[in-house]
């Protein structure tokens, strides 16, 4: 007689019932083991091993050949949720297809990144969608719906949002704290996470490395609030190594058992630490159990969430899993039956479409589209490149801008130069020689045989040596700014340093977590020292070849002979063509990437010289910026007839660019973030208070180079007849868009709102809805845009910790960008007046300020709450509007703690001020009441100003 299967194997039961049954069958050690990223199998129950984490930001990453779509910031530039959903679905299908061939491919997908592109110097700018929370939330919801599928029970993949919370800098990213005031948190940061979670396809969230208000993100009490927006249990996966940081680099708790216990209690479910070795994590959690820092309920809560995710991925019901066919070869096979199941014609076409829609036309005086048959010089370091980033997959197909223009039938003769300086290196009487690598390098690349091992520095090729002048190799030198140089051999291979320290021409591209292909030249004697940037050590000529010097060993002085400058070569090529197309930008592994913020908005000086040289030789010069982030190119904008920008566009970037340049496709990408004119327009990269710093399009008071939402077309659109109504709690706007040009094109309809004469600082305008539409010449389209009224108009009322729609006038505007407004309509809202703060009854939380200068927020306790302290122990000025003092108060009690020598508090009400000294203290959490006696009672509704001097933390104020 066949045994009845246990309830957890019964698909007719709810997921909750099945999880509860399975949990009850697991021992406590087995449940603890589930909490590591690499959860082991439990053979007695038929439970398979499981791994959280599969990178898939714009295609499946790190697992071999996959369709590579444009970078996330490029997808953001499409402003097209439907397209982004299709990309997400394609990526999800490829995850399933690749997993069928390689079980290391995981279904718990760590994508997308929803950190807002608040600061363009952030090294990971390429990973986010936009600086605007609504646009980010819209595209993230679309991508996760595509990744997860739309089945009511099962999920194609389980998407995880990154990185919670306020993560926008790489410098000291695991030890620095972000000061995040309540309004910025509620109005700016949270909507980017809440929006996609509410949409229903998000399976989890990953905390960031940084601290927020002095508390590690992996201990964030706000995670519980995010979970309340989810219809299903939300899994929290730690970032790699972050659990150890809590008691390690952050020193926040005394030992690792306490650190992991606190993270588990705060809501972390899966611990990504120590790679595949789960033993340290299991030992620390077990110790925490033994010490009573956590109990079995804490373990079970996390294990249940992880198991629920696995049930929804179909792990326990393979015969019912509707997405199993996508990995079985019955869906998504290549059309010839021989290629990988994920390399489909549909995905290739989608890669082209996504790259086309991501192109933004920044400026055009009529040079574009290119007239048929014109000869083109394709120039610059990215002219014949398809650059990948840290979260890219391996290319199966590759079309560079040069490839795309050469293949286009409407383009005449095409010439090319990468703008590199041609140099030779000499040490004494010897000249650097690169041994030949027959059959490899550029030829292999062109054949599509891209070996990811080339990114790591190979040891199977001969090292560089020095010989007589007749054997000298001419190297191509590219200067990426900030001293970052790359050298490549005639066959295209980059000089790279392998683990044995020898320098070889071995890398297809700069790349890897440690970039081994970047060098600097430091003046030394009559020549230079060639310094390997990753190791920080100079190279030396040794018997075995060119190698990195041992610690403390002197480098070999080299003389650099420039045979021809790249600028001269570019000028010559530009002069010989009808049109010059300069393709400039960044390499995503150099000067701005994960772990490294950019230093400047400026284009690398060597690249700046290239467009100037080309333009001097040929006035018909087009500048194409291919980059992960904005540049300040004001002089190029003023001088050149046409500029375009696209993020690194993936495998089809060159095809898409050629189709846009020639007019096969009218450009319709829109900038997803502000392009500032100069570095001076930017706040410090760690200043997240965009209200006070006056940053992003929401608050920036200056004149940007290109505003948020900017993008031109080859046709013209007119907007008219804007109306706004409220229907069942929704704002419904309708506007007519007419294509009054002679070409078909897409328009991105952008609806903004603003508050007229607000009582508290509000943005200049903010995006409330958007839609990308196709419009034929002469066509008129009525576009309907919808937004929840309260969310669209409200702001966070710090006085009462709630969302508030204030009464008064609002203005709705439709624009071609956030600064190019085409029509508007005014709107009156009854709203709810913000009543005065009842401070006598409720007191005043110090962190609930309305205005601020010189302060930062820190942790009130290690579990929850915020306190206020002067930045760097200086002076903080805090303002609190409309405090109702009733018939008068004579004393204000300030609850504060000293974190050193003590300080001074001053309370000012109108013209009345009083101060109190804060005694020295060593415990930052030892708050004490300090009486500030006013010289006379003060009543009525007043603005209160609190001045804090010295290393003092303020919790709250009480009134008597």
Automatic annotation (TrEMBL):
GO terms, biological process: arabinan catabolic process; xylan catabolic process
Any Pfam family hit: Glyco_hydro_3_C
InterPro entries for this protein: Actin-crosslinking, BXL, Fn3-like, Galactose-bd-like_sf, GH, Glyco_hydro_3_C, Glyco_hydro_3_C_sf, Glyco_hydro_3_N
Span list, region Disordered: 323-342
Fibronectin type III-like domain residues: 747-818
GO function term, MF aspect, one: xylan 1,4-beta-xylosidase activity
Record carries keyword Repressor: no
Entry keyword set: Hydrolase, Signal
UniProt KW Hydrolase keyword: yes
Similarity-based family: Belongs to the glycosyl hydrolase 3 family.
Name this protein carries in UniProt: Sugar hydrolase
Organism expressing this protein natively: Streptomyces mimosae
Lineage, opening ranks: Bacteria, Bacillati, Actinomycetota, Actinomycetes, Kitasatosporales
